[in-house]
Amino acid sequence: MSVAAAATPQDRRQLLIWLLPPLLWFTVFMVIPYGMLFYYSLGSTEYMTFKPGFSLANLVRVFRAEPYLSVLLKSARIGAFTAIGATILAYPVAFCLAFHTRSARAKFLIYLLVIVPWWAAYLVKAYAWKTILGTNGIINALLLDLHLIHEPLTLFLYNQFSVVLTLVYIFTPFSILSIYAQLERIPTSIIEASSNLGATTLETLTKIIIPLSIPGVIAGAIITFALATGDFIAPALVGGPDAIMVSNVVINLLGVAFDWPMAASIGIVVIGVGTALISVSQYLEHRAQARF
Amino acid sequence: MRELGSRRTSWALGWSVLAFLYAPLAVMAVFSFNDSDFTGLPFQGFTLRWYGMLLEDDRLLESVWNSVYVALGVVGLSTLFGLPAAIALDRFDFPGKAWFARLVLLPIVLPGVITGVALLLFYMAMHFRLSLYTIMLGQGTGLMCITITEVAARLRRMGRSTEEAARTLGANEWEVLRKVTLPGVMPALIGAMLIAFSISFDEIAVTYLLTGRQNTLPMTLWSLLRREATPEVNAVSTLVIAASVILIVLGTWLSRRGSGEPVAAPV
To answer: Which of A57, A63, B118, B152 is least surrounded by CB atoms within 10 angstroms?
Structure first.
């Protein structure tokens, strides 16, 4: 990082060669579109056409008018449940990979077992839960076969529970990978020192492993939270009217209501939250690396 | 000793989570062979009918090619612009660097729908017609951060000593790039290409907003899934999963083999 201090004209030319093309790209395809999003959020609609303007009314409506704020909060809640659920499910697998897999070969195989469901088609994974939880689904068929129920139950599908379950399923592999990366960084010497000094397994776990892994775990969970909160496939496939999330609302505003300024305003609010989340995640990641 | 706690309990928990991850995939695969018009128990017998139907579905086959086309374009774009961005971010200091890094990472945490809406407004203002190319540009922008973070991480781990040694020995910047830096980042670059390809192949949120008349595979599947759930969908899903397993195993194997080699090729 010391190039700037000793910046020669040649260094500066080198920097421009590398920086200029991506900078131009991101300016054209990100800064300008996001700028236009902001511009649209300040306008209004009349007879389904956009009318430019300079009013913050739409941005205020995101926080004041129903259903926007409650949808945002509901999406955030579903995102948070997903992040927590995926972390809880992921920890044991990451733990086994980091502490109970001896040979490099076995590690590689388990690693593959984890990434296959992560990369398997997104839509397919959401749809699979529809076939499991639905009225003609596997769970209902099993319960009917066992004569535990007499007609199919509808309570499994088309609610917030099914959305959270599907999202947890989708994001657990990602959480495993991010927690594993964190656990793998913990030096063996610290664990040995802990047991040499007479700590029990539980003490080592609660006082060494878990505290040391927390910044990285949270950094991963923030990404899960962000991705789950903005998801629109799971709510559309397995969620009912009760589980409409922020992305679905944006799409409805565009395609059904033609209220572009409102859609843009929601976008601006989400971008603000997203930027804040990246900053927190970068800070935590930085702290996690600085520890060792 | 790195082992900690009961091996048996840890693995019992670990395997049950892995079982949870595989059960739905197994369900899809099993029902793709079920000789019944709807997905559900009891099992009616074995058939390859649904796979046969796929081969006759021209719309589906065409969308597979559209997806491959878009994904290749995305890989090209994200390498062409992502590699220079990674080099600029790791090897140089410049004003506004922290903000540039944040901007580049933003698409990771933003819902694809928001990125899609912003780009749609931009395309409309520019009077672009929506097509496979508008999808390519949108996905490329969103997925560039993968190439950038993977390659930048690799550059950081490599350090600069080999490059400096090459310079001291009289290599010019072009030679340093071609013979030291590029071979060094190659495993990360290949890994990033594969990840970008598979995410693009699977992407739906950005695509949903930017798609024109021609559809990608996820969009075709999406319309199939939303209308009626035929076992044909199970068959496509099983094939898509099988294809991604092959790609993943191949990709991981390739990038592992690459990273095991010395960081820089001999100068």
So the answer is: A63
Q: What is the pLDDT of residue B266?
A: 26
Structure-block tokens of residue A273: 């939250």
Mean pLDDT of chain A: 86
- Test B109 with A222 for CB contact under 8 angstroms: yes
Instruction: Give the tens place of pLDDT for each residue, A173-196.
Output: 999 988 998 888 888 888 888 888
Q: Is residue A5 part of a domain?
A: no
CA of B196: which chain A residue's CA is closest?
A: A119
Q: How far is A194 from chain B (nearest CA, A)?
A: 11
What are B176's two structure tokens?
């340093």
Q: Is residue A260 part of a domain?
A: yes
Q: What's the confidence (pLDDT) of residue A262? A: 92
Q: For chain B, which domains are there?
A: 47-260 (1.10.3720.10)
H or E stretch covering A45: strand A44-46
8 Å CB contact of A204 and B4: yes
Structural domain boundaries enclosing A103: 65-290
* Structural domains of chain A, count: 1
Helix (H) or strand (E) holding A228: helix A210-229
- Enter the pTM of the model: 0.87
Which amino acid, one-letter code, is at B36?
S
Q: Which helix (H) or strand (E) holds A49?
A: strand A49-51
Chain A, 57-116: which have a CB under 8 Å from a chain B CB? Answer: 89-90, 92-93, 95-97, 99-100, 108, 111-116
The Cα B99–Cα B93 span in angstroms is: 12
Nearest-neighbour CA in chain B from A54: distance (Å): 17
Predicted confidence band at B255 (pLDDT cuts at 50, 70, 90)? low
Interface check for B142 against chain A (CB to CB < 8 A): the answer is: no
Q: What is the pLDDT of residues A201-233, one digit of tens each?
A: 888 888 888 888 887 788 889 889 988 999 988
Residue A261 maps to a domain: yes
Q: Which of A28, A103, A127 to mutate to test the interface with B (most CBs of B within 10 A)?
A: A127
Domain membership flag for residue A122: yes
Which residues of A, range 160-179, sit inside 8 Å of B by Cβ?
169, 172-173, 176
Task: Give the residue, A20 or A198, on which the prediction is more confident.
Answer: A20
CATH label of the domain that carries residue A268: 1.10.3720.10
Can you give the pLDDT at residue A228? Answer: 93
